[in-house]
Structures are given as C-alpha cells and as structure tokens.
Specification:
alpha/beta; 5-stranded parallel β-sheet; 4-stranded parallel β-sheet; 42% helix; globular; binds phosphoric acid mono(formamide)ester
C-alpha cells in the first residue's frame, strides 16, 4: 500500500519494468498483458494526472475500465459506504481497484474488507490522506533516474508543506531506500511532528535530513521538488500566509540562479504558479514537470501489470 513496505530490489524492478513499458509505448505496438481484465478507478478526491494516467495505462495494456468518481451522480451522496461501493463494482466486473481517498489507510482497509468478505481484489493506492502516494513517488524516481542515469548519491530537496503531503512521505521512503539523500525543507509549522527524530532513526541507504533554510540548502541540490500548499488539509491549523511563504520559500528565478546549473525542478502538480514556484522556472529547461506527467503512464502500466498479472488466477 506504500513505498515504506518495498525493498530497494522491488522498487528498482518496478522502475526497470516501467522503462520497458515506455519503450513499448514509443513503439506503438499494442500490448495485450491485461486483455480480458477489468480495472476500476475509484476516486473520492479530485485528480487530473493520477486518474487519467492510470486510465491511459489500463487502456495501453488492453484492460477494460470502470471509472467511478464519487459525489454528484453516484450513490455515495445517498450514503453508500466505500466497501459497498467497491463490492458492487466488483460484482459488475471490477478485478482491481485504483483508489484515491481522503482518509489515510483507506486502501488497506478496503483490501482487508474485500478479502474478509470472500471477494479478494488487488487494491492500488492512488493517494490516501496524508499517508502515501506511492505511484507518484515511483514516477518521480523514474524521472530522476532517466535524467541523471542513477539514483544513488543524488541530493534531493522536498520543499514546503511536508506535513500534509503524501507525496513527500512516499518519496522520502522510496528515494532513501534507493540511496538518494533527501532533505525536507520548509517552515517549522509545516514539518511533521517528530520529523528530526524520524530522520535520525530511519535506517536506509540514503539519508533523510531536515532544513529550515532553503537559501543555504539550494546550492547543494541535484533536484528540488516544491509542493503545493495543501489548503484542503490545513483545517484550522495556523500556517504561513501564502505571500510570506512565497518570500521565504518560493522557488523564484533569483533563488534558482544560485542553484547548481545542473539542478532540476520537479513538481507533482497541481502547481500554484507564483506561490511555491515561479512561472518562469516551471516553464524553463530545468523543469521536468511535464516529463513527470508523461512518465506516469509507463510507471502505472508497470504497477497495474505487476498487481493484476500476480493475481491472474490463470485467466490469461
Ligand atoms: N500529483 C497528483 O496526484 O496529481 P493529481 O491530483 O492531478 O492526480
């Protein structure tokens, strides 16, 4: 359900499989890996990149697709539970669920409930609360490895609203497992509680560190990933105002002029231009943002193939 659970070998195998999928996509040869299988996208929070790249990935593998976006025209507005929704979609034909949910742990709870009810299904985490967004971190790592030719020894800064970010968590787990040195940088009020103790305790190939000073850290980085201020998860918490945040931590052209010439910029999206990231940087040659979005398709193809072929049960 997350990258905290995967070994370096498992992560690298998924990245290698993603590279193969990318070659297949470029060759335009149809892939039949999931012909006759049905994937269900089960989205309880908004998404542009994740939902559509999972859909493109399923189609590229010849899978059938059921798309469920909660709210509006669905029976969630009549109070139908997550489990009942999934169980009914499974009865209609869904064999694997790609789920995004606002509650941390929802994918794991759904997988357990389906198994206990005698209808086991693959459940893939497409972002759960503040917990993890594993396929985002995989595509971030894939994009970095594609650009630099390696992961081990890279210095990556993850900047901003770390506290509410499932992307920051998954990247910290996945990247440090694979030998990347990750530094969380941002205002103290947006660091998770106990982060410095967690950083000291984390035993991985790469180091996890914390910094509160972007200007000091930036010249050492190979890549920087500013995060969106996740207003929907702030609630009543005090946090820096957007304009104060932008002045101290916004990735401006002036700041980037002091980074290494080879330092690249990633962003999981959506970008708040002019807040965490200047438009000119988002659109510059340093920006890998659209490569990240494009790489979401082969990475999610590799994840779908791994999850569904593993639970094939002799169907293909
Ligand atoms: N990075 C990401 O999860 O984007 P979406 O919310 O558009 O899926």
């Amino acid at each position: 359900m997350g990258l905290a659970d995967l070994s370096e070998e498992e992560i690298l195998a998924l990245l290698d499989a993603s590279a193969e999928m990318k070659k297949h996509l470029a060759s335009k040869k149809p892939l039949k890996d999931l012909a006759g299988r049905t994937v269900c996208l089960l989205f309880f929070e908004p998404s542009t990149r994740t939902m559509n790249s999972f859909a493109a990935a399923a189609r590229a593998l010849s899978a059938g697709l059921i798309t469920f976006v909660a709210g509006g025209a669905t029976s969630t507005v009549k109070g139908e539970s997550l489990f009942d929704t999934a169980a009914n979609l499974a009865a209609i034909g869904a064999e694997a669920f790609v789920i995004r949910h606002g509650s941390s742990g929802a994918p794991a709870r759904l997988a357990r409930a389906l198994a206990q009810s005698g209808r086991p299904a693959s459940v893939i985490n497409a972002g759960d609360g503040w917990h993890e967004h594993p396929t985002q971190a995989l595509l971030d790592m894939f994009t970095l490895r594609e650009h630099f030719g390696r992961l081990e020894g890279l210095e990556v800064g993850i900047l901003g609203d770390i506290r509410h970010s499932r992307v920051a968590r998954s990247n910290a787990f996945g990247m440090t497992t694979c030998g990347v040195n990750v530094t969380f940088v941002g205002p103290p009020s947006w660091m998770p509680e106990g982060i410095e103790r967690m950083a000291q305790r984390r035993q991985a190939k790469g180091r996890l560190s914390v910094s509160y000073n972007l200007d000091e850290l930036l010249p050492r980085l190979d890549a920087i990933m500013p995060l969106r201020i996740q207003k929907e998860r702030l609630g009543a918490e005090p946090g820096p105002r957007a304009e104060h945040y932008a002045a101290e931590f916004g990735l401006t052209e002036d700041r980037m002029s002091r980074a290494k010439p080879t330092c690249v910029v990633l962003h999981p999206g959506p970008v708040n231009r002019g807040v965490e990231l200047a438009s000119a940087i988002a659109d510059s040659e340093r920006s890998l943002i659209l490569q990240q979005a494009a790489n979401g398709v082969p990475v999610r193809m590799a994840v779908l193939a791994r999850c569904l072929v593993a639970t094939d049960g002799g169907k293909n």
